[in-house]
Amino acid sequence: MGPKSPAGVELRAIGSRMRSTNVERDVLDELHSPYIGARAVDVFDRVANACWVACAARSWSFTGPYGSGKSTWRNLIDAILGHDESRRSEAESVLTEVSPALPRASRPP
User: Fold this and answer.
1) To the nearest 5 percent, what fractions of the chain are helix, strand and coil?
2) In whole angstroms, what is the distance from residue 71 CA to residue 93 CA?
3) Which of 22, 49, 54, 98 would bridge with 36, disulfide CB 3.0–4.6 Å?
4) DSSP letters of 38-88?
5) Angle at 37 between CA 34 and CA 40, to 5 degrees
6) Can you tell me whether residue 99 is helix, strand or coil?
7) 51 within 8 A of 81, measured Cβ to Cβ
8) Helix, strand or coil for residue 96?
9) Rama region for 33: left / alpha / beta (φ>0; ψ in -120 to 50; rest)
């Protein structure tokens, strides 16, 4: 039996989420089924929508504590907006699991 949360729920690490993402090392790798949380969905939606609005800002700064998913998120954005069709397909698949409308947001209207 593992450690428990204050609410008494057993906590356990998810093995696929234990490997850190490195932007330089992993930019051409598969995405390793990244965890996409509510904040990542919101940020992706904002970035995707800004890509197709002529007067929108297109310079962003993503900051957060170590391990918060910045590099994983950056690789996902690279995959979905990049030129490699196989990485784009993988990214669309990952995003569809979270929100079926997200991959469509990354394509021009």
Assistant:
1) 45, 0, 50
2) 19
3) 98
4) HHHHHHHHHHHHHHT-TTS---------TTSSHHHHHHHHHHHHSS-HHHH
5) 90
6) coil
7) yes
8) helix
9) left
Residue 2 CA to residue 13 CA, distance in Å, equals 10
* 15: pLDDT strictly greater than 70: no
Give Cβ neighbours of residue 39 (< 8 Å, ≥ 6 apart): none
> Residue 41 — very low, low, confident or very high, per pLDDT cuts 50/70/90?
confident
Instruction: List 10's β-bridge partners, or say none.
Output: 4
pTM score: 0.65
CA distance 16 to 56: 36
Dihedral, 18, 71, 104, 95 alpha carbons, nearest 10: 10
